[in-house]
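ERR on first pass: missing label on line 2. Operator R.T. fixed the label and resubmitted. Corrected input:
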Amino acid sequence: MADTTGAVEVAGAADASGGRPAQWPEEVFVRRPRFVEGVRAYGLIAMMWLRSTMAYRASFALTVFGNFAATAFDFVAILLMFSHVDRLGGYTLPEIALLYGVSGTAFGLADLLLGSMDRLGARVRDGTLDTLLVRPVPVLAQVAADRFALRRLGRVFQGVLVLGYALVVLDIEWTPLKAAMVPMMLLSGAAVFGALFVAGAAFQFVAQDAAQVQNAFTYGGNTLLQYPPSVFAKDLVRGVTFVVPLAFVNWLPALYVLGREYPLGLPDWVAFLPPVVAGLFWLPAGLGWRAGLRAYRSTGS
Amino acid sequence: MRLYAVVAAGQFRRFATYRTATAAGVFTNTVFGFILAYTYVALWDERPQLGGYDMSQALSYVWLGQALLMTCSMMGGGFEDELIERIRTGDIAVDLYRPADLQLWWLAGDLGRAAFHLLGRGIVPMLVGSLAFDLALPSSPGIWMAFLLSVALGVVVSFAIRFLVALSAFWLLDGAGVAQMAWLAGMFFSGMLLPLTLFPGVLGDVARALPWSSLLQVPVDVFLGKYPGWELVRAYAFQAGWAVALLLVGRMVQSVATRRVVVQGG
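pass 2 clean. output:
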């Protein structure tokens, strides 16, 4: 018994009577709602990765800048285009900057919080997903926080900068409703992209090597939304409105703010749908995730 | 020589193993091809003959960019992450002990990888692109051959740059930052973003003179028949010049780096 007391004391919850094993420290053991537990675990894991990143500060600084610059290049390409033309698809540079800024910021937020989920396929393949399953923490939170990369803030900064530029330069007749649209677009846009990340991860349970497919929707979607809908073929616009609801990230609400015509002759009120659409889109994404996790079979040894 | 051929073939087979990943990559390249093609159509609608390309040449530029993205590793990747990891963990000591040249070994492997990516990731997006849009495809087989040679030279230049990036890990240990910088430069100066002929003034001149233009701009211009007669030799000389220069620098850095190698661990 003598040698166990040391361990008990370390655990800080000594149960003097009968030498039973130490109880879990209070704060770990408290039962919380599953969602709260998930968010808390996400925070803890993200903090751990933050500290690990800070071990290589020079590299971190370079990668934040790199992330910023990588996304800025998309905008540089647009600027270069506008050095040759005044309008693209009938839209001026500030108008396109608004579309770009909203999409870039929304995607940046989703990427910062859930971007690591595209590593799920790799985890299934090398069997490290099993480790996550035995921990008393929601798997979604663990996968999302895995290798949390603060450098992705670079992307958010860049989106915010372009958005700021657009809002300053554009001559919009602001109404309270239009002003409220801006934060609404960013949040629901981030939610739409977030659902895409979750759906993509769910798909990787089925096709582990196909992580790239989701890039077509996430990064590809972001690139698509940086340009006005008038540039693209009708069928493509239909697809990203009714199948994958990307058009609700920025096109429809931003066109309302700009007072421009909607694609496909959609009615006015669709501009206010993004929060609803984002919420609805999380349903299949979440169900897909559950189904994927339930169907998961370890690769074995 | 036989050894390096085996290494190249091995890498070809290694990348060929992941068929789902290849199919997924082809899908993504194709989606991006469509998105970018529409933006180019909008741009060339406003300004026909922009940058010396007509609409179908501009569209060919887009789809060639997607087809060569992996082959010429314009966004990095291929081998440098692996080499950086070997340097970081100290496994590089084993590589240096082998009776093979470090640079040639990785070059052979990268050529094998590029050959697979040209076939596996290049052909399908190009086919889809030419079905969906009116592309300017060369009619003579000679131009196709000239294009392939230009792509090969582009791959060597790309390798030489990424080899230097990887060697930086000898000093920094975590090569992620440098790799990303190189990736950015590759994206911007290869012409992946927009044809370099659209870059204004001095920026355009500088961009066309930098090694990265060998990765996409030069091969595409060869493809579009922009180098008639002896001009073609000049284009090759430009690519080969950068390839040799960068490989030599790589060799020097390698000899400095290996002299200071201290294997980590016990």
